[in-house]
Design brief:
The complex is a heterodimer of chains A (419) and B (426).
Chain A: H1 20-28, H2 34-55, H3 58-65, H4 71-93, H5 104-133, H6 141-158, H7 166-193, H8 197-215, H9 255-272, H10 274-284, H11 286-291, H12 296-320, H13 338-348, H14 353-377, H15 382-396, H16 398-405, H17 410-413
Helix pairs in contact in A: 2-4, 2-15, 3-4, 4-14, 5-9, 5-12, 5-13, 5-14, 6-7, 6-8, 6-12, 6-13, 7-8, 7-12, 9-10, 10-12, 13-14, 13-15
Chain B: H1 17-40, H2 43-46, E1 50-54, E2 63-67, H3 68-88, H4 93-115, E3 123-124, H5 125-151, H6 159-177, H7 180-203, H8 209-232, H9 236-239, E4 248-249, E5 264-265, H10 267-285, H11 287-297, H12 299-304, H13 309-336, H14 347-357, H15 362-382, H16 391-409
Helix pairs in contact in B: 1-3, 1-4, 3-4, 5-10, 5-13, 5-14, 5-15, 6-7, 6-8, 6-13, 6-14, 7-8, 7-13, 10-11, 10-13, 14-15, 14-16, 15-16
The chains are: A mainly alpha (419), B mainly alpha (426).
Chain lengths: 419, 426
Amino acid sequence: MSTQTPQTEQPQGAPPEPSRFSRIVRDLFTAESTPLVTFLAIVLALLVGAILIIISDPTAMRELGYFFSRPSDFLNSAWHDVWHGYQDLFKGSIFDPATLRGTPSQFFGPITNTLEDATPLIFGGLAVTIAFRGGMFNIGGQGMTIAGAILTTYVAFQWTGIPGGLQLVVAVLAGILGGVLLGGFVGWLKAKRGAHEVVVTIMLNYVMLFFLTNYLLTTTAFHDPTKAGQSISKPASPNAILPHLFGPSLNTDIGLVLALIATVVVGWFFNRSKLGFEIRAVGLNPAAARTNGISVGRAQIWAMVISGGLMGLIGVTQVLGLNNPNNNSLSPNIDAGLGFNAITVALLGRTKPWGVVWASLLYGAFQAGASVMQANDGISTDIISVIEALIVIFVSAPQLIKEIFRLPSREAAVPGAAS
Amino acid sequence: MTTATVTPHAEVAAPSAERSKLVGGISQAVVGAFGLWAFALGERTSSGADTVFGFSLTHGQSQVSVPAQATALTLSAIALACGLVRVFAPVGKTALRWLSVLYIVCMVLAFLVWAAAGSSIGLNVPSILEQTAVATVPLVLGAMSALVSERSGIVNIAVEGQFLSGAFTAALTASMTGSVWVGLIAGMLAGAAMSSLLALFANRYMIEQVVLGVVINVLASGLTGFFYDRLMALNGAEYNTPPIFNALRIPGLASIPVVGPLFDQNIVFYAAFLSVPALWFMIYRTRWGLRTRSIGEHPLAADTVGIKVLGLRYKNMFYAGLLSGLGGVWLTIGNTGQFGKDMSTGRGYIAIAALIVGNWSPVGAFAAAVMFGFALELQTALSPLSTPIPGAFLQMAPYLVTIFVVAVLGKKVRPPAAENKPFKKG
């Protein structure tokens, strides 16, 4: 839930308001300061992650057994585990000091991996944001991603007759269509039948997963005949693959540009368009919106349609993007947990379009670094889910951060304001 | 008192009951007509084939065979009629409920008659009963857990996470100590720890509860997956080879034909099914139940008469966690033994769907859980019959049934009024 900073009204006779600059500096260190709370939430989550890394290391735990006779043993291995783990997390996501004298592609490699991992998260975060602003929870990211991926894959390997770059455009539109169909279905059930969208979206996740894994990838239309025994579709034709953004040696594709365009459009949609206003109104208070002549059902259906279309774009970047591990083809785990991560991204971004982008960059960095951390230190990538979930919980509970770090509240910082 | 959160249930001015009755009835009738066409007039049953029902676990004994076409025809026709009655006849609420039950039973039976038509193996009724009951166990426990928490006004989407943490902890502790009882207690407490976390953040920090539940599920999945990779995958012999509960045969009852196998199960199984009447009694007949319902419906009024709303909510969430933790215990040391990553495969969510379909009542939720349990086991029951339906669609069945039922029921189900609304005294 996006928390709104309470505006403390200055009562009559209160001391004069301090200067703007000093107020900014002072607010930076109160619990109402969003950047500070976010930063502390990340620190706290990483601390919990460090504890988990230590207690899951049998060697360190054995050494903890004789902690009081030789504490250095335990402290050394605990420090070794955490320091190397988090160092690799950083090296894999931002930059590796060892590459300072390397080629540009080595130097920029980690950060471009982060951007590539952030791309689908931006789409997903925006999708959850739109549904959330309309008063609904889109937990069906997995199903909608799969729906988009199925259509985009089909266009990408089948419709090779479309000339040049046009095939890519059609493939992207097909992916959007896949998500729109599923999202529209959910919205329609919600608006017309009153079916709870949380239940429907979760059930659709499983329906789509079984449909893809155990049916579609076994049919001759989709299954790649050269990969007998594997659940993999035919690969996309080279024309339909998202091109590199920063040259062929760097791992970021044009999907990032699409994601940023989507962010701008969603921002405009909420602030300037009639439909965006209606969706927000319905989300804030459906009864009031209906009284004011807004069709609640229509707004809900449109919110889910747009949300689904954005989720479908995750399918596009997952299949046609550079991150696809199987030569740009469709496989059962195409969603890779992005549908659920999208929810945490949207919350961390406080359901604001550009907030979603920042949150996606952070989580993209975690994901890019986690694979390096797993390869070098044997620390399972699942730790990232834990850290991400904790960050969201802490950010949603600024009161908790305030209690842990004993931050002053704004009321205490402004003498007399609470009187 | 309440923050400006958006509740998904907060819609007002539902479409008129008449229209909902019309659409629901017609969709039932259409599905019934489809059944008539597919099950009764399709080629599988049209060649005068018989359907064999076996009533003993050993194959070939006490079988009854019925003409497939005539039976499927009759059953689909009854289902179709149920839909039409719902649209046109002025029937009361209770009658409508029984009509729905009759409709579902008829459709399922027609489907089974069609699926097993012409097969010499036929359908083994006791085996289907037992498998359904086994699949129902975690669903019942999850639904009862969600019932306790939602009746006290807290949405518990995190049943899935409680399953996972209960299953993981039970497998780990039972492996390390070699005792199922330690695993049982540790698993239940792990579930309770997860639900208490939810209660803390919902009550004290007032985070939106559906979102919080989903995030806690991600947290539980990540935590159990992380420790699975670090401990169980590396040293499965020490950390992931738990003992499992022995079956406890109830003398007398276990010898009854057909239903006998249901009385030769382990203690978690019995606990799950006994939890339904126990909770029904506690919710509707005890002081605790009255207070629980009151804080779920109107916490302010409850507070006014001196009930400690937040205290009771914390307590109830703890009990709820014990129940769903027991569901997790069942997944590992109650049934298969070993823990696997994300082994609950969405059954926590299905349990919540069962609660919604059952209109937040213990008996209704139980009936829905049995329906979902049957749908989950459908694939196993039908796989030797070589039906023309691909296995994937049978696997989808429970999830599709959920969507269908939720859509048909629509706004007729009513959640506790104060659900998802944090209570702040003041």
